[in-house]
Design a protein that fits this description.
The chain is an alpha+beta fold. It has helices at about 15, 35-50, 55-60, 75-80, 165-185, 190, 210-225, and strands at about 60-70, 75, 95-100, 105-110, 115-125, 125-135, 195-205, 210, 235-240, 245-250, 260-270, 270-280.
Length: about 290
């Protein structure tokens, strides 16, 4: 497990979305109606959350919504509405905001200094709803391999405490196990086909966002050293299916250290499921597992 940046094709929204959204950059050449509606809904959510306006916030939260703060504490919709957390970026003044749109799923990523937030919007019959809010503070946790000295990967590479509910979920599990096997073997060639070119990875134990190229470089370096670093085993997971995009939230327990909450976005491209986004936050309140 590791971390982030997404490199989009920048587009100044200016007159299209008005001055309130002019600072945003997006990943598409043209701004579609969906882009505009997601960005507008996201902007309104951010402003309402910063003001503590539970009434407005509640209108856009999905029934399965979760809020994971920078401490790794995850709250369900009812908990959030009962006591609205303070957003790590406030009203996001001065933040850099980027997005990915994949059919029925839109991911908005904002960041300022070491603090970053992922918001995953999903299309419901009633309109766009916020499914995931996930904060990460870069460099908060000491970095290190999730499986120091561990060279064999059983979970998640071979078995999982999760039963796929349909063909799409099974395809994602197969892709995920293949890429994690690549991580275990420090095999960038095996890992790369399961990762989108726009892939972004962000985590508490990384001091900067990581791209696909960054991860390939790391795997190649690990291959030279030969040090075992199997990925953290899965404890639990949920998947939310939206056609050609699936949102996955999961909980992992590394071989040493504290557990990690992860939000991933999988997309189907050219008939294959690949990972596009991974945000990983250490659960600070949990006890650390000794090695």
């Amino acid at each position: 497990m590791r971390r982030y940046p997404f490199v989009p094709r920048a587009l100044i929204l200016g007159a299209v979305l008005g001055s309130a959204l002019a600072f945003m950059s997006v990943s598409s050449v043209t701004v579609s109606a969906d882009d505009q509606s997601i960005l507008q809904a996201d902007h309104e959510f951010v402003q309402a959350a910063a003001k503590g306006d539970t009434a407005i916030v509640g209108k856009v939260l999905d029934a399965d919504f979760t809020w994971t703060d920078a401490d790794g504490k995850t709250r369900a919709r009812a908990e959030v509405l009962a006591s609205l957390p303070t957003p790590a970026l406030g009203d996001e003044s001065g933040a850099q905001v980027k997005q990915q749109i994949h059919s029925q799923v839109g991911a908005v990523m904002s960041g300022r200094d070491k603090t970053h937030v992922l918001r995953v919007w999903v299309r419901r019959p009633t309109g766009w709803r916020l499914l995931v809010y996930h904060e990460v503070t870069l460099g908060r946790q000491a970095s290190g391999p999730s499986g120091p000295g561990v060279k064999d990967c059983e979970n998640p590479c071979k078995t999982l405490p999760y039963k796929p509910r349909n063909e799409a979920e099974q395809a994602i599990v197969t892709s995920w196990q293949a890429l994690e096997t690549g991580v275990t073997n420090h095999d960038a060639a095996a890992w790369s086909p399961h990762i989108a070119e726009e892939f972004v990875m962000l985590g508490s134990s990384n001091d900067h966002p990581l791209t696909k190229a960054d991860r390939i470089a790391t795997l190649n370096l690990q291959k030279q050293t030969g040090f075992g670093s199997a990925p953290a085993p899965l404890v639990s997971a949920q998947m939310f299916d939206f056609g050609d995009a699936i949102v996955m939230t999961s909980h992992h327990q590394p071989y040493t250290g504290k557990p990690v909450h992860v939000s991933r976005l999988w997309i189907k491209r050219n008939g294959q499921w690949i990972m596009a986004i991974s945000y990983q936050t250490t659960v600070q309140a949990a006890p650390a597992k000794a090695g």
